[in-house]
Write a structure and sequence with these properties.
The complex is a heterodimer of chains A (364) and B (442). Chain A is of the alpha+beta class. Chain A has helices at residues 13-20, 45-58, 63-82, 85-97, 111-116, 119-129, 145-156, 205-217, 223-231, 263-279, 284-301, 305-319, 328-333, 337-347; strands spanning 23-29, 34-40, 179-185, 191-197, 235-243, 250-257, 353-360. Classes of the chains: A alpha+beta (364), B alpha+beta (442).
């Protein structure tokens, strides 16, 4: 709804004005934040702030635009979840990993919820969370800092403060044993998605888990790719992601099997490899390799204005201070083999594992 | 770097043609301490044998699995221990090898890139394994309706043309390919005269030229430059339904043969497309998403290759609105061809393209890719440096004229991936419908 008009700039005007000034905009919602971002030639800064402040101050949610946007979001859900093997599996996994925390709900929502959301629901959400005190702005590039701050004060200064939103419900119970779900779908081959509830991003273990993720599945010589894809040919691909979140993140392993592959073999190999990293420290060469790959990836992110702005925002939201973005390299450099082993042991316990298997079935 | 006159100042280029015919382009750029290395050989999937679709891509994938000096494992261990990842693959026009190197390890990493491109040995076990992996990977492509639609579109819009198959090939073809085919393909088409090496980043250009001369300059192979594929055959209006019985959303593509990248009409095509189906305010986005809520996304694009190209529209919608989506897209195309863009739309699209262009030159990798494209397509460097004024010079009449010739109104194929029993009938009003099972596109 944030692109469908506010008091000063009506429906369709946001992107028209922005594009006419040589800019583009987009947005995404994660489990923790919604981010709006613009890329533009720097002489359009004033226009961008005017547009952004307008919608924070006075978003219009009309019944017509809400209905139209509801259809659009349903198409997005059909695209990314209902007709996507990974989307179907991921939705199941999050609901296994979290019993109580709102992270168990898909970010895009269940189809029925998308259907039932009312205009009042939207407005209440907007009033609660799109308040100035709950937002932060990052501007990076060919800008004069003082002039930029002055512009920000001019455009945002008069938007009234609102009470801070309440805390997100916690109370996730201890997991006492493996949880499993199966997704039956007419796919060509089986797949496996495993996940563990990890620490919140602020935990010192977060950086160690990034190192572990890199050692396990970044590059052809990573442990899981070499064993599962190259040596034993059990899988066509293996990916690992460790997603930093405000509350507990999820450490994920996704393996696509060969059409004649056996899920049991893949699981055995995976659990053995997880056990290895949880019992013996990474050899020095593997640790150095992982740190160098992470350094390259940080440098890549910092190579664009968008990447820098994004890194600052993520650091603020996840770690409580945008300055933490500048510490990523030293954080990784400080990780020891013992840290990685300890993090693997602490978070990748077999008894706290959640597993979703994709079981191919005949077309209906 | 942005200048007041709108000219994009590219970093100074050092270019050399080595005595064996290989081209080297080096650009020093300030910024992060990385260097983008991109080696391209003008041998792509358009050279795949008639019954060996996927050959060029497989050769590129298998080339990194062993050279005269290193095994595949040694290559991976070495490259990744230096904080880099080697990429290899092919598109319809060329094969590519590349990586992003921490500047301090450039010498070692450049050597590996040149080694895999010029001296692969295709060890038999690795060749067989990569082939099995590619075949298995294609099975998963069948589970992605969007990817199935893209493949079907290429096959029908370029029917019978060397561009008319996906670069990752077909399972039945890949199963037939032998190691000796790969050796022969590499020997026939890979040579210095067809090779360009581009290095961009925090580097000393003289030192890079010296490195390139030592490694690439040693390569002796007399592969000729490949001939350009012919013009594509004309395509009549037809509808192809690719049957995927279980999906709840139809993926739609509408495509027709259009322009090669080196066309003098490149900028009119770019601007007309931006108005019609480019950004968030395009005609298509407004008609399909904003006004009717038919889809989450819709876009059009000129996909331009060396010899020719296609113009296509892609979108997706719930099953029951499949025909409506096609109707709206064709109506919008007709409207655009009749009147062209309005002055305000034209000027907005021009500002949009000009304003965002510097963002496509922000990283070393992006600059390296643009420089490699300039070589591959034989286009003037001014297409990059004077991009903004060329965009601004496009007129309403040029856009309309271009659309009349290249937008897929009465000709062009309509591809719809979805359950045939729900969608095929509704598409009959657009042309003769044929139905194939999804596995036929793999």
């Amino acid at each position: 709804m944030m692109f469908n008009g506010a008091a000063k700039y009506g429906p369709k005007e946001f992107d028209r004005l922005l594009e006419s000034r040589g800019g583009s905009s987009n947005a995404y919602t994660s489990n923790d934040v919604t981010a709006y971002y613009e890329d533009f030639a720097s002489d359009a800064l004033e226009t961008v702030l005017d547009l952004e402040a307008d919608r924070m101050r006075s978003l219009a949610v009309t019944p017509e635009t809400l209905e139209q946007e509801r259809q659009v979001v349903k198409e997005e859900r059909r695209l990314r979840t209902e007709n996507s093997v990974f989307g179907l599996m991921e939705e199941q996994l999050e609901a296994l990993v979290f019993l109580a925390h709102p992270y168990r709900w898909p970010v895009i929502g269940w189809m029925d919820d998308i259907e039932r959301i009312t205009r009042d629901d939207c407005l209440e959400f907007f009033r609660t969370y799109y308040a100035p005190g709950n937002a932060a702005i990052y501007a990076v590039g060919d800008l004069d800092p003082d002039a930029t701050i002055a512009l920000l004060e001019r455009f945002y200064g008069d938007i009234p403060a609102r009470p801070p939103p309440g805390p997100v419900a916690q109370g996730e119970p201890l997991q006492r044993g493996e949880r499993r779900a199966a997704v039956r779908y007419p796919s060509q081959a089986a797949a496996l998605l495993a996940g563990w509830r990890g620490p919140p991003a602020r935990s010192p273990d977060s950086a160690a888990l990034d190192v572990l993720q890199t050692a396990l599945a970044v590059g052809e010589s990573s442990r899981l790719r070499r064993r599962l894809v190259e040596e034993e040919e059990l899988a066509v691909s293996v990916n690992v992601s460790w997603g930093w979140r405000i509350d507990p993140g999820v450490f994920l392993i996704f393996a696509e099997l060969a059409p004649d592959g056996t899920p049991g073999d893949v699981e055995r190999a995976l659990w053995e490899e997880i056990d290895r990293v949880a019992t013996a420290p990474l050899p020095a060469a593997e640790l150095r390799r992982a740190k160098r790959l992470l350094r390259s990836s940080v440098l890549h992110e910092l190579a664009t204005h968008n990447g820098v702005a994004h890194a600052l925002g993520q650091a603020e939201v996840l770690l409580g201070d945008w300055r933490e973005a500048g510490r990523a390299l030293e954080l990784y450099a400080a990780v020891t083999p013992r840290d990685v082993r300890r993090a693997a042991e602490a978070w990748l316990d077999p008894a706290r594992r959640c597993v979703v298997t994709l079981e191919p079935e005949a077309s209906r | 770097v942005r200048r007041a006159d709108g000219v994009i100042a590219l970093p100074p280029l050092q270019e050399a043609r080595l005595p064996n015919g290989a081209s080297v382009v080096v650009a020093r750029r300030p910024g992060v301490p990385l260097a983008a290395v991109r080696l391209l050989v003008e041998a792509g999937a358009s050279l795949d044998p008639r019954d060996g679709h996927g050959m060029a891509n497989l050769v590129a994938q298998a080339a990194r699995r062993g050279t005269a000096r290193r095994t595949g494992k040694e290559i991976d261990d070495h490259v990744e221990s230096l904080g880099s990842e080697l990429g290899a693959g092919a598109d319809e026009d060329a094969s590519y090898f590349g990586l992003s190197a921490p500047a301090e390890f450039l010498k070692d990493l450049l050597d590996v890139v040149v080694d895999v491109a010029t001296s692969p040995t295709f060890p038999i076990r690795e060749w067989e394994r990569i082939r099995r992996r590619e075949v298995a990977g294609l099975a998963h492509v069948l589970d992605e309706p969007g990817a199935v639609a893209d493949r079907a579109m290429i096959q029908t819009a370029y029917r019978g043309h060397p561009y008319g198959h996906p670069t990752d090939g077909r399972a039945a073809h890949l199963r037939r390919l032998r190691r000796s085919d790969a050796v022969a393909f590499h020997r026939r088409w890979f040579g210095p005269a067809a090779t360009t090496l581009v290095v961009v980043g925090a580097v000393d250009p003289d030192a890079v030229l010296a490195m390139a001369t030592r490694s690439l300059g040693r390569w002796k192979a007399d592969a000729p430059r490949a001939p350009l594929p012919p013009a594509p055959p004309a395509v009549e209006r037809s509808v192809l339904v690719v049957d995927k019985p279980d999906v709840t959303q139809t993926q739609v593509r509408i495509a027709a043969p259009a322009l090669a990248r080196a066309t003098p009409e490149y900028f009119p095509a770019l601007v007309a497309n931006a108005v019609f189906g480019g950004g968030f305010t395009s005609r298509l986005m407004e008609a399909v998403r904003v006004n009717r809520g038919l889809s989450y996304g819709v876009r059009s694009r000129f996909a331009m290759s060396r010899a020719t190209g296609i113009f296509f529209v892609s979108s997706f919608t719930k099953l029951e609105s499949t025909a409506e989506l096609v109707e709206v897209i064709l109506d919008e195309a007709r409207r655009f061809c009749d009147a062209g863009p309005g002055e305000d739309e034209l000027s907005r699209a021009q500002s949009y393209l000009a304003g965002l262009f510097p963002l496509s030159l922000e990283t070393h990798d992006q600059v390296a890719e643009k420089l490699a494209d300039v070589r591959l397509y034989g286009i003037p460097l001014e297409d990059v440096s004077r991009y903004r004024e060329k965009v601004r010079a496009v007129t309403v009449e040029q856009c309309r004229e271009l659309a009349r010739r290249h937008f897929p109104l009465d000709r062009g194929v309509i591809v719809a991936v979805g359950p045939a029993r729900h969608i095929a009938r509704s598409l009959e009003r657009f042309g003769p419908v044929s139905v194939i099972p999804a596995r036929k596109v793999i």
